[in-house]
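User: I'm curious whether this sequence folds into something compact or stays loose and floppy. Could you predict its structure so I can see for myself?
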Amino acid sequence: MKLTLVRHTSLQIAEGICYGQSDIDVSVNFASELSQLKQKLIHEQIDAVYASPLQRCSKLAHALGFDGITHDERLKELHFGDWEMQSWNDIPRELFDVWAQNYAELAPPNGETFAGLQQRGVDFLQEVHARHAGQHLLVVTHGGMIRALIAHVLNMPLKGLFRFHVDYASLTRLDLSGAIPKIEFVNR
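Assistant: Here's the prediction. I'll summarize afterward.
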């Protein structure tokens, strides 16, 4: 099974805001970013499409023109709890610094850990792998989820998640068809 992970397009939100699972709309650049994504996907044979139910992913999945999109709650971004929709600069520095040192195991107040987000993603992978063996899936999701799935495939500690950037409207491909999962590309 191959998964082409698509990060949603840029968002209609000010820089420096923590938004996680907040349901933020796409930016005014949506049409342009959509057109570029369609070009990247033009020769792909996709067997099934899954998307986070948040509007930034759902809108993109539908606009790409695929039928039968399955929305899955497990594909949502990290839940930042009380920090959602706050400026990163307004989050008390001492709380943020403690979280930043161990975001895999610590959650923002009333939020979730990256280990929890990754477990949601792994559960999703296991389920679709059983259902879609040998197929090519398109998964429209978020930067945090894509990083967590890459870390899972690489058997990498979550502490290294932010050592790579996942661009808006980019493609990342995972190949789970063999005994050893592989990453074909990131940020295409």
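Summary: The helical segments are 30-41, 55-63, 93-101, 114-131, 143-154. The longest strand covers residues 2-7.
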